[in-house]
Amino acid sequence: MGHVFSPNRMGSLISGRRHQAVQPREPLQRAGIEVGQRILDLGCGAGQHLPVYLSLDMGIKFTCNRF
Q: Which InterPro entries does the entry link to (predicted)?
């Protein structure tokens, strides 16, 4: 079995430096996501980019369910 990331270290996934390195708009544009499509992101981590996605003016609706 591969490496399993400990949930106790989730805070290390949320940082300003990491946010600057991964621009949230870019993956959406590269994936060709269009208005009306439904996308499921499994294993999306701590949801660091969700607030940014929610604020983007791209005509895309984002929903977050935490289990």
A: SAM-dependent_MTases_sf
